[in-house]
Amino acid sequence: MTRFSGLALLSLILTLTAWADPMPAGPMPAAPTAPAAAEVAPERAGVPTISVASRVKDIAHVQGARDNQLIGYGLVVGLNGTGDSAQSEMTALALTNMLKRLNITVTASKLKAKNAAAVIVTADLHAFAHGGDRIDITVSSLSDATSLQGGTLLQTPLLGADGNVYAVAQGSVSLGGYSSASAGSSKTTGHPTAGRVPNGALVEAEVPMRVDDGGHVTLTLYNPDFVTAARVQQAINATYPDMATARDAATVEVQLPTAFHNNPVGLIAALGDVPVTVDCPARVVINERTGTVVIGGAVAVAPVALAQGNLTISVKAGLLVSQPNPYTEDGKTVAKPAATITAKEPQVSVVPLRGTTVDELVRALNGMRVSARDIIAILQALKQAGALQAELVVL
Hints:
Aspartate Aminotransferase, domain 1, 25 strands, 3 domains, alpha+beta
């Protein structure tokens, strides 16, 4: 029996004004006064607002203090026969060059080192790292090794984007999984061809950084937002009057006060503890590959009626056998293919949403007993209809 099941019916009956309250009789209300330039405009009436109190250091970073990515090519040795095969020429060449530096001459074609693997080593050189500091590294197999379990990374220089060496990596590889095989059976857990070496690289060269530029410090928001940038400006100016200016939705420029003229680090430390009320935008994030749906608390839905149903079609294949009459000459039994098709469609109920918030929307979807895939389709249809008052992000 072949069975086809899916979302066959998804209807949205928009009644954007059906449940709206009629405008009361009487004179029109006076127009609201425009907010002052230094104030943040209030939120729209009827739309839920979500604000979270945070510190400046939790929502922004100082421009100029940044990480740098490093990369290198190395060898992992000490594997229990799980290294690269003889077909991996780069592993043989790398081993030959490594042994040559140790005054050992070996022909690459004669090497059969199943206990070694070619790897790519990556790391992030954090801001203000000094010579002698240690950083974590990630080791990933580059060829056909089956596992890096029990391996040791040999000394590997790590290069920056400019081609200079900034760190040197070496150490035992730690895996988050394992692979085991015996007598034709195998078991693998996690990803045994990639691992980490905690504190596995020594910083050899520093990257110069400067956090104060021309007598000011620039703060960059992790999540650009005009309302949040304006609130950061107001919060800083409440402590240091007329020192902060929001340049755009992502950056706030702070002039160095006289007390911190030669102490930008002290100013940055003081700014980091300034409390700010962060504005959370209305956003819905969906991942169709995994069926994940995340709905922000500020999401609002206009008045709408929602109907959703599943249509299930079943096709049962079989054979129709035709027998000849008894004692019939040249009679033959004939089998012909036959199929029985049935369709089942559950009764669909219409659920009204009377200008609701995310809490009521979630309760309505749970009451309809729809799957995650159906919820994604419903949210996309609500957005297309203009009833979902939020940004829809599809991953």
